[in-house]
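Today's session is about reading a structure prediction critically. Students often jump straight to the picture, but the first step is always the sequence itself: look for stretches that repeat, for charged clusters, for runs of hydrophobic residues. Only then move on to the predicted structure, which in these notes is written as discrete structure tokens rather than atom positions. Here is the chain we will use throughout the hour.
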Amino acid sequence: MSETLFDAAGAEAAKGQEPLAVRMRPRTLDEVVGQSHLLGEGSPLRRLVEDDAPMSVFLWGPPGTGKTTLASVVSRVTKRRFVELSAVNAGVKDVRAVVDEAKRRMGMNGTRTLLFVDEVHRFNKTQQDALLPAVENRWVSFIGATTENPFFSVVSPLLSRSLLLSLESLDDTDVRTLVDRALSEERGLDGRYTLTEEGADHLIRLAGGDGRRSLTYLEAAALVSGPPAKEPVEITGAHVERAVDRHAVRYDRSGDQHYDVISAFIKSMRGSDADAALHYLARMVEAGEDPRFIARRLIVHASEDVGMADPSALQTAIAAAQAVELIGMPEARINLAQAVIHISLAPKSNAVITAIDEAMSDVRAGKAGPVPAHLRDAHYKGAVDLGHGKGYRYAHDYPGGVAPQRHAPDGLTDREYYRPTQHGTERRLTEVLNKIKEVLRGGGRN
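Below is the predicted structure for this chain, in token form.
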């Protein structure tokens, strides 16, 4: 009993000394910022809460998007006892102890338990299997949080018994809402501080869609700006810089800086200057540019300016884009950097974009003759009577898998769109293409 009283007294003494991000944690679903796709009327999560149903849920998303917050709110709203474990330091013994206590409380007074496991992807198979009986028999309601794809990190039996919900990074408006709320509410900074527009812009960029980080940085900036006075203390961009030790990158994601930096980024890779390209990548990442936008530009550039001179550049760019989706930032900066270096140092060729643009130009100009009869579809009734497919030569029946026949429509038989360079792989492709054309032209007009 004395230990219980001591714990309660300690908790009361610590109240108000908690970090700002903890004090500002939402108490209801309506206070949760962002994740509207999960919290709208009739959404699965809201229905689980409103129906007060037993649940097993995985919350998958980047850090600071509200996974712990949602679990805490669900526990509060449904009046379940909240128990949190971290998969970093908890084991099977800890899981079983929580489940046993949950069963005991449910049997004694009907108290239900919500077990929240943070970083659940760190549990091994045995540890995850230990959760199965509790989930299956509904001894606890279970919420697991993960920043990694559950399809790769969670055992199938547990995943199949659970609802998987994906969380998204907060946008700038969401982060600004959190910051404004923390500045004004009594449990936050209670109106004792104000934030300049410059300070807010820098803070939002640094947060990078992470709500918890935005409040941590705001609290640190408030400490740097000085103690509260009779009048609210103003937090400036300089205070944020000093608090976080990060210089404010002058970068407007919808203005000139955005277009100038991305232009310099692309032209540096095209010019094979890996160091300059990495600088512009770093500038965009530090400024909070959407990493998916950067990844999309890499994919385009891999075909536009490298193309068939090094076909693996496109594979690297796509892999980097997938890494952005699977693991998120800041770790995915490494994958983006790898793609930037690969594309920068790859042999260059614009033959691919030149080929498709010339072909499209001809089509727009009306140079699109009828499909040659021997290439037309001959599968439907009556097609043979029309001469469709007559004289078609099956490529696999000929040496090298190339048949001597015409494929282009009338008026375009001599057009050459793809003209390989002598760079990288395209040097070899020039020889291959010339041999193929020699065989094709041997087919005359077919």
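Discussion point for the tutorial: Confidence is low (pLDDT under 50) at residues 1-13.
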